[in-house]
Amino acid sequence: MATTDTRTPGPAGPGAGSELATLLRQVDPRRRRTDLLMRVVITAAFALAMIPLVSVAWTVVSHGVERFDAYFLTHSMRGVFGGVDAGGIYHAIIGTVEITALAALISVPIGLLTAIYLVEYGRGTLARAVTFFVDVMTGIPSIVAGLFAYALFAVILGPGVRMGVVGSVALSVLMIPVVVRSSEEMLRLVPNELREAALALGVPRWLVVVKVVLRTAVAGIVTGVMIAIARIIGETAPLLITVGVADSINFNLFEGRMMTLPVYVYRQFQQGLIPCSAQDTACIATVTYDRAWAAALTLILVVMLLNLVARLVTRLFAPKTTV
Amino acid sequence: MTATTSPAPPGTEPGGLPDAERRTPRRRPRAQRVVERGASRVFRWTATGAGALILIVLAAVAVFLVLKAMPAMTASSDELVDGVSFMRGSSSLLDYVGPLVFGTVLAALLALLLAVPVSIAIALFISHYAPRRLAAGLGYVVDLLAAVPSVVFGLWGAIVLAPAVQPLWAWLGENLGWVPLFGGTVSPTGRVIATVAVVLAVMILPIITAVSREVFLQTPRLHEEAALALGATRWEMIRMTVLPFGRSGVVSAAMLGLGRALGETMAVLMIISQGFLYSFLLLAAGQQQTIAANIAAQFPEASDLGMSVLIATGLALFVITLVVNMSARAIVARRKDFSGAN
């Protein structure tokens, strides 16, 4: 907020004003010093927060770019061992894309319908309860969502189940509240006159919602969904305990373990430095860390791309109204 | 509506209006609802069903966690200690959960302690110090921190930050070792709870900043201008108008951040060298562990009973975060009436 200069009280005449101003400046240097000190402290705090951001961005890019190439993106870890200069993230990309897509497929209809309920129909206790518990649901720790999905499938299919669909369910628990929140906000922005005009023409209620309300808010909803996807695509803990880890390509969400990008990063980090013997020149001691950084770079690029496209969608497809 | 349907006030004639006329306003909305049939009614019930599903899912989370935690909660201590490999050091389930809860709360509170002052300052910088044209862009830059996946923060914390801050921890241990918090042998790797707290603080910074910033921006302009007109400097104006106005917002923002920090898994898992002690030594290795990180560490190789134990600890985490988040929401709701520009 650009407030006016704090020290000059708006002089009436040039002579008297400047005298008053100098008087004010001289009388209380302590207050002025405090003011200056706080300005420095607050600006420094902002600079302080930029350090981790810049450091993370720099290290991920500088370490990750080394192995980030077409080979890395198109090969799996099958048969890769020790410090061999090979291995990639193809299997992890497949897993991430499939699991996230299924999670979105579950979350978007539920989330969108809930938002429609809250905006178009919601009155009374149920609506208030839903609003409150959607807020509460945003605070569920991701690992608890993973435990829930595991417990759910363990009760149905027996213990030790590890497959892609379990991870999708876990991610949906995290994604639904985000979709509800953002869609609800967008639906509330739709002017009431549009609904009333359509209803006055005799259009049935459901058609009003689908053809008028959703049509008007579609850009905002798409943006919200993409940001929700960007938020869950980096989730590691729930996938680690529900989907597990794998070295080979697995296209089937309903059978067997799969690899995902964030879990791949963790897995490579966890394996640590490779003990290479001195004669073995083909062995790279830091190959696991290099792969972890490159996969982290991929992950960050995907997240940033999703955010960027989401912003573009809002800008390009927002309804051109003057309301 | 209420005037016509409520019983007639004592002064007037009770039978003044014919019954049918008096009821018509009450009937009309009902008649409108009947018109909604066919696809519209299906649509309404589908939407309502989706809303109810949210409540069902949340209830299911609790139910299934309890269901799978039951074996661990009903098993005898001997069964647990013999059957679960990672419980060897503890004598009962409570004995196992206790230090984990302690570690979780300690790490989250430390992170909060670091993050709140910085977040308030950043929010003030964006709302009251930065040039108006830059403010939105700067807010977006802070939000970028929230877009970084936690596993990347973990990687960064373990490989870059831990070695970088180790000299600082060593210096603290050398010069301030008499403070109980900094006592013990300072870890040579820097993989300690103090480093974890720094990373967690960075991770919860964006949410605390975003909420505080929104609240600060809502300060009534007239309050600010009144303070300035009385000759207050910018800082005095902030102290007298912006901070009192935004206090409840900052409190709830901090609690939302606390909820995040409590449940964070990967950063803790990848950085900390775990231990299961009630220990306040922030700079020594092998002292604390958090619930979330412990689950992620033990789950892949746990036996059936072991998983049950871990789910029981997860249930504890769920309850803790639920309480924190619900009280944060309650504070916002309670203070809402008083925080307006009245």
UniProtKB/TrEMBL annotation, chain A:
Pfam families: BPD_transp_1. Keywords: Cell membrane, Membrane, Phosphate transport, Transmembrane, Transmembrane helix, Transport. Signal peptide: none annotated. GO terms for molecular function: phosphate transmembrane transporter activity. It is a multi-pass membrane protein. It is found in: Cell membrane. The keyword Cell membrane applies. One of its GO terms (biological process) is phosphate ion transmembrane transport. CDD domains: TM_PBP2. The chain crosses the membrane at residues 36-61, 89-118, 130-157, 163-180, 212-233, 292-310. Residues 93-310 form the ABC transmembrane type-1 domain. Part of the binding-protein-dependent transport system for phosphate; probably responsible for the translocation of the substrate across the membrane. Belongs to the binding-protein-dependent transport system permease family. CysTW subfamily. This is Phosphate transport system permease protein PstA. The lineage of its organism: Bacteria, Bacillati, Actinomycetota, Actinomycetes, Micrococcales.
Automatic annotation (TrEMBL), chain B:
This is Phosphate transport system permease protein. Residues 1-32 are annotated as: Disordered. One of its GO terms (cellular component) is plasma membrane. One of its GO terms (molecular function) is phosphate transmembrane transporter activity. It is a multi-pass membrane protein. Keywords: Cell membrane, Membrane, Phosphate transport, Transmembrane, Transmembrane helix, Transport. PROSITE patterns: ABC_TM1. Residues 101-328 form the ABC transmembrane type-1 domain. Part of the binding-protein-dependent transport system for phosphate; probably responsible for the translocation of the substrate across the membrane. Belongs to the binding-protein-dependent transport system permease family. CysTW subfamily. InterPro entries: MetI-like, MetI-like_sf, Phosphate_PstC, Phosphate_Transport_Permease. The keyword Transcription does not apply. The gene is pstC. It is found in: Cell membrane. The chain crosses the membrane at residues 42-67, 100-126, 138-171, 191-211, 265-285, 305-326. GO terms for biological process: phosphate ion transport.
